[in-house]
Amino acid sequence: MSWPRSAAGRGARPVRAADRLTRLNWVDLVVAAAVLVGLYVVLRVGRGTAVSFTPSRTVTVSTDPANLPYYAARSLLRMFAALAASTVFSLLYAYTAAHSRRLQRILIPALDILQSVPVLGFLTVAVTGFVALFPGSLLGLECAAIFAIFTSQAWNMTFGFYQSLITLPRELDEVSRSLRCTRWMRFWRIELPSGAIGLVWNGMMSFGGGWFFLVASEQISVSHHKYALPGVGSYAGSAIAEGDLGKVGWAVLTMTVMVVAVNFLFWRPLTAWVERFKNEQAEATEVQRSVVLDLLRRSYWPRLLGRVLAPPARALARACRVFGVDDRPLAVRPVRRRAGDLAFGTVATSLVCWGLVDLGRYFRQRTGLGVFGEPLLLGLATLARVLIVLAVATLVWVPIGVRIGFSPRLSRLAQPLVQILASFPANFLFPLATWFFLRTGLSLNIGGILLMALGAQWYILFNTIAGAMAIPTDLREAMDDLGVRGWQRWRRLIIPGIFPAYVTGGITASGGAWNASIVSEVVTFGGTALTATGLGAYIAHATADGDYPHLLAGVAVMSLYVVALNRLLWRRLYRLAETRYSMG
Amino acid sequence: MAAPTTTTAGGEILLSARGVTKSYAGADGELPVLAGIDLDVRDGEVVALLGKSGCGKSTLLRCLAGLIPVSSGTVSYRDKPLTGTNPGTAMVFQTFALLPWLTVRQNVELGLAARGVPPRERAEAALKAIDLIGLDGFESAFPKELSGGMRQRVGFARALVVEPDVLMMDEPFSALDVLTAENLRGELMELWESGQFPTRAIVLVTHNIEEAVLMADRVVVLGTHPGTLRAAFPVPLERPRDRNAAAFQELIDTLYQTMTGRPKDTLRPPGRGPAYPEAGDTRRTIATVPLPRASVDGLSGLAEILVQHDGRSDLADLADDLGLEIDDLLPLVDALEALGMALVEDNDLLLTPRGLGFANADVQQSKKIFAEAAWEVPLVRLIATSLRRSADGVLRDGFFRDLLAHHYTSEQVAQQLETATDWGRYAELYEYDAGPRVFARAGV
C-alpha cells in the first residue's frame, strides 16, 4: 500500500484552506504577477487586431527588431485562439459522433477526409470569406489565420477524443448508468477526464505543427492582393525581402524562444498535471515532471481558484440536469428505429447528391470536368517528391535515431532538441533557401524536395529515437550474448523494434510533406519567383490568381492522393505494426 | 430495515426474471448466452449465482440491473417491468471501477450528486457510509493510493450510500488476495446481519463455491453454453458459518458435483446446448465438444499432479491444495475429459490409462499420446482432416471461423480456435501462421 504521500505532491486538496490565506508566500506573488502580466499582454495585443483595414491596401510590417516582442505576442495569441477553438470543436464533434449512432456514420468518415485535405489549400477560401465577414477590419484576416491553424490541429484532437469516448472502459459506462448519473456528470466526471491525457498530448503535437501554418498564413497573396498580418512570420518575410540577414537572425531567435517558452511554460506543466487522469490503479513509476507545475502547486492560487470556481461549477452541473439522466432504453422499437434510419439516410443522401450535382454544374459551366486531368498528372510529380523525402529521411535519420535512442545520455540531450526542431516552422527559412537556390542555380524541381524535407524529416527522427528507446535492454543484451551483429541485428531486432514508432513518424512526415508542397513548389525571393512542376505549385498558382475551379480541383486531387497513400501504404503498415511488431 | 433470514421463502419479491434469454448475433441467427431463466429475488435474502466462466452469470446480473437489454422475457423490479436502468439496484464491480481522478469521498458521493442531493447532505451521507464501511481516514485519498481491499470498500460504500433495495455484486472479491477477500466477506456479512443499511437483498455473482456457501441463503447454479438454471440449493446454515461443519462440507461437495456433473441428473430445461458427452460418443461434434481454455502445459501439469495422488483426487481438495480457483481448475478438468485422459466420478477426478501414460511419458512420447488424444477432439480433427483434403495443405482460418460461428459467439470462436491451435501445434498435426492467418498441414 502506498498511502499516504505528501499533500503538496498530490496537488490541491481543499483541506483547511482558510488558515493558509494569511500566509501568502513569494511563490504566490510570482504567480499572481505572471497572471496579471499575461492578462495585460492579451488585452494590449488584442486591441491591435481590430485595427481598421481595407483589403485594397497592403498592411506593412515594420522590420524594426524593437517590434518583435509585440509581433511575437500577436502570433502567440493567434496560436492560442486556434487551440481554444480546436479544443471546443473537438469536444463537441467527438461527443456528438460518439453518442449518436446515425450522425456517427457521417461525422467520422467526414473527419477522415478533412484530415487529408491540405490545409493551405483552403487558406484562400478562408481569407476571402472572413474578410467579407468583417469588412474594413483586420479581424477578418486574423480569423483566417486562426482558421488555418485550427484546421491543422482540430482533426487530430477530435479523432483522439472520439477514440477515448468509444473505448471508455465498460465498467465506467456501467458505473455511470448504474448510479443514474446525469449526462453532464458522465461527460464532466467520466468521459472528459478519461480522454484528458489524449486530448492534451494530441493538442501539444498539433500545436507544434501549427507554427508552420501560422507562418504560412501571416503572409499570403490571394487574387493578386498581398495580405500581411503583424507577426513573427510576416516579420521574417519582410526582413528577407529587405535582404537583411541580421534581422532574419532576430526573427529566428524570437521564433525559437517562443517555441521553447510555450513548451516550458504551457505544455510541460499541462502534460504533468494531466497525469492525474491516468486510468490506472497503481502509482506510476515514471512521471512527467514540470518545474512550473511544482511551483504552481506550492502556491496557494490553485486552491483559491478551486474555491472560487466551485459554486459556478455546481450551478453549471445543476443547469445541465436538463440534458437528462444517462440511461439507455432497454426496448427499442425496431420499426421506429428503421423508419428513423431510413429518413435520416434519405435526407443525408439527397443532401450529398444535391451538393455533387451542384458542384458538377459549377465545373461544367466554368471549365468542364477535364479540369481534373492536369492536377492528376501533376500529383504524380509531387507524389514522387513526397516519396523521395520519406526514403531519404529514413535512410539518413533512422540509423542516427537508433544510435541516439540506444544511448540514454544522447537521447536525454537530443530528444527535447528534436522536438523543438519538429515544432520549428520550416517555411520560416524557405526564403533563405530560395536565396541559396538562386545563387547556385539549383532547380526548384529538386530544391523543392529539400524544402519539403526541412519540416518533415524531424518526425521520422523523433519517432525513431522513441522507438529505439522502447526496445527492452534485455533484448539487446540477449543479442549481444548471442553475437548477433550487423545486418542480422538490424533485421531481427532493430527494424522490428522501432517499426511501430517509425510508422507513426512516417504517417506524420508524409502528411507534413504533402502540406508543405503547396508552399515549397513556388517560392519567391525579392522579385524572383521559382516554380517547380507539381500539384503544390498548381494549387499555389490557383490561389494567387483567385481561380476557384482550379483551386478546388487541385485540393480535391491532392486529398485523393493523400487518402490513397494512407489507405494503400500507411494503414497497412500500421496494422502490421500493431499485430506483428508490437512489444509485449 | 433489512431482515436477513436464513430461510429463502416469505419475503416480498423484489426482482424477478421470467423466461429471460439473452443472445448475440451469430452466423445463422442468434446464439443464446442465457436461455429460459426464471429467477426471483426476495426481500431479505442473499442469492448467489454460481457458474463456470462463460456461463453468462455476469450477463444475467446485468440484465437484472437493467444495464443490458434481454432478448426475450421480462425482468421486473417490484412487479414493474424494466424500461431502463433498474432504479432499485446498485452495482459492485469485480475491477472496483472507481474513478481514479476522484478522491474516495468524491467517488462515494457520485451517486448522490447524480440524484441532486445538496452538497452538505451529500457529504454527511458519504461520511457516514465511509465510516460504516471502515474507510474513515481515507476520505481524501485517491484510489491508486489504496490497497485492493480498501478500493473494494470504496466500491461498497459507493453502492450502499444510494440505499439500493438490491445490492448487485459481480465477483466482488475475486480480484483480491485470499486473506483480504476473507476479511471483507466477513465484514460485509456482519454489516448485512446488523441491518445498518436499508438494503433488502443481495445478488452475488461468483465462481467460488465456498464463497457462495459462506454468504448466500440460496445458491443458484448456472450451466454453460447457453447459461441455464441447473439447480438451486437453499443454504439453511446459521451465520457466521463454520467451514468445518459437516453440513457446510456436504453442500460444497454437492455443488462441485452439480458444476462438474453431467446434465442428465440436473434440471436442464429443454433447449439446445452441448452436453458433456461420454468418451467415444458418436455425436461428438465441434458444437457438442467445446474446447476449454486450457493450455497443454496446464493440463499436463494437472495430470502429473494426479499421478502424485495415485491417479485419483477429490476435486474440492485438489483446488484447495493447489490454491486454484474453480475457474482455473475446471477448464483443465474439462480438457482432460475431452482428451479422454481423465474422468469425473462422483466428486473425484481420476486418470484414465491414457492419461496415466501421458503423465509418465517423456517429451516425445507424450507428444505422441497427446496427438492420438487430440485426434479424437472434433475441432482439432476437423482442422487436420480438412488440411489433408485440401490440395496445397493450406487453409485460411476464416474457413473454420465460419464453421464455428454457427455455434459460438465471435468471442467464443476466437477462444475455440486459440485452444485448437495450441493443441494442434503441440500434437504436430498442423501449423498456424499468424501473419496470413492460415492453418497449414504439418510439414507444408
Automatic annotation (TrEMBL), chain A:
Alphabetically ordered keywords of this record: Membrane, Transmembrane, Transmembrane helix, Transport
Family to which this protein belongs: Belongs to the binding-protein-dependent transport system permease family.
Family matches, as InterPro entries: MetI-like, MetI-like_sf
Protein localization: Cell membrane; Membrane
Pfam families: BPD_transp_1
Keyword Transmembrane helix: yes
Name of the protein described by the UniProt record: ABC transporter permease subunit
